[in-house]
Amino acid sequence: MRRFYFRTIVGVLGPPMIMCYLVVIWQKYLVPIDPDSPVSFGPAGAKWIFYSWFVAGIIGLNLSLYGLAGAEAGMLMDPFWRVNNAMVLMLHADNTWSGPGGWGKAIKWVVRMRGTGHKQTRHPGRLWFILALPSMVVFVAWPLSGLCLEMTSGFVRGSPGSTPSVSGFVYSDFNGSPGGRSPSKEPQPDARVPGFGAVYTPQGFDRSKKNFLQQVPVVLPMDEGVEEIFLTAQGKTPIEGKAWGLLLHYECSIVDKLSDMRLLNQRRSSMDVWGSKDVRKEPQGKNNGLWDFKPEKWSLNIDAVIETAYETLLMPNTLPRENPCTYEDVLNENSPTGYCYYNTDSIAAQDNSKMDQKRIFEVLLWQGLIGPLSAIGVSCTSKSSVGTADINGVHSTFSNFIRTDTPIPTRRGECARSLGAETLACTLKLQENGWLRWFFDSVGAPLPIDSVQTNNPGFIELGFRENVQLAYLQASQLRQSLLKAFSSYAITLMYNDGRDFIAPDGSRLVKTNPNMTAFTAGTVITGNVMPAIIPIALFGFWAVNSSALCLVYGFRRRWSAMLDGHTVFRLGVELKDGYKAKFMKHSSLAEIEECSALHEIPGFVGDVQPKHRLGRIGLVEGEAADKDKYYE
């Protein structure tokens, strides 16, 4: 008897190799997927990997059957796996355990056997089931693997050195736009990040908590605050590397009780509001203002008073107080400033690092349509800083942020005003008329309607009409308007609202960044409806069982490479004369299940001449064949 090394080695190594290939695909293409990312990323070559897996699956299935067929021949000679009779052996001769066609044939065989009444042969036997199990598992696992892989359009990491074109301010031109940038009441449709529109959050931050991060381009929200994000110049596709940009935070919350205010809790009663004059107090680090709505009365049936207070960045006592919204010092264009991201004098000017400290802005809005005034209140916190950070284009995260000052502009008027508590004060511009109307406009609240307040026909003919406000501004709307002021200015500050400019040095909004690498559009592999761990577990079970059977029984000496038609014919020739006579007597053209002689012929492959020095392989009822003996 011989050993069949090639078939056995193929059966032992083939299934684990296919299994390992699937694990590699899983680890390289599926595990790195960020479920919170609104776009898909992946390594290059996804299309070839996707199709090659199904080719490999077909090859792996056939390699497994190739190896198991050899193990089957060895197991038929093992007493533990011996089959009861030739009827069961015929199931193995047809390899019915290897696929759906054979499984159906085996089921039909079992049904017919039960109908014939043969008690000895009622099921295919333990050997058939142990061979069919890995075949059934891989038959299920292979199509399931297609449900865990899907090709889609996404982005592939670009080659190093591919310098992307980005749109937005960078370190060199942040204070280079003519006229600078400062908050204003100019209407903005939305705070949309231009270009690809990515917003970067700290590593470990759960992006699924914020709805506005679930799509690109990102639109900064007006109904929720921003915990901490990093804005940098945007490319047309995702980018990664070391970037310079704006780190910011802002949040606003509705205040229901005056005692919860930190800055406006010391105030007069509502009865004294109308009798007060404009007040500007300067407690340490705070500005406090009370502003009357009467000068701009846009609706005859509404009165309003607004109170604001915010924490400022203090200048040294030797310097005059600086207006956070305007540039009043025309004689000294480069005098110290506390509201830009640079420091002209480390002694005279405030330290830029204080900008990344949260500061408070509070507002109380008193409104009355008819009768006494009632108030709504909102408290906001904000901070910002500029610097460099390492950004991850796949996960939209940043790390290693280092604060930096921006270059000092040639003229102080070119300074870009920082984002902070002053942003809201400069947006409202309470010294000017129109702040109440801005609250309504910014959130799309109903404006006054044109109404006739009399039934006198004469007045109607003369066109006596007036504006009538139908509803108060609600606390939630006040909060939204302040959040929108923050988000709109963040886009202005970092992207100039998408409008191009020419700086004194000739730079423009769009430029190249050699420190960044751009992703390219391409085909990537993503997960599908089926978790990958399910087919991986099934393939693992198949690989272990199939390889184990080949390893244990494939290397043993046996009479044939596999149980094929030739070996079955040989076994039939070697039958004893008594078995041949029974077979000839009961043989007919009927189905094989009706051949009763097969039930009486043994199915164990052994030595028909155990006492002779030279043995012969055939179907026997005796002991196993001696593997060290010579056979003819």
UniProtKB/TrEMBL annotation:
The lineage's top-level taxon is Eukaryota
- Spell out where the chain crosses the membrane: 9-29, 49-69, 127-145, 532-555
Q: Which UniProt keywords apply?
A: Membrane, Transmembrane, Transmembrane helix
Output this protein's name.
Answer: Uncharacterized protein
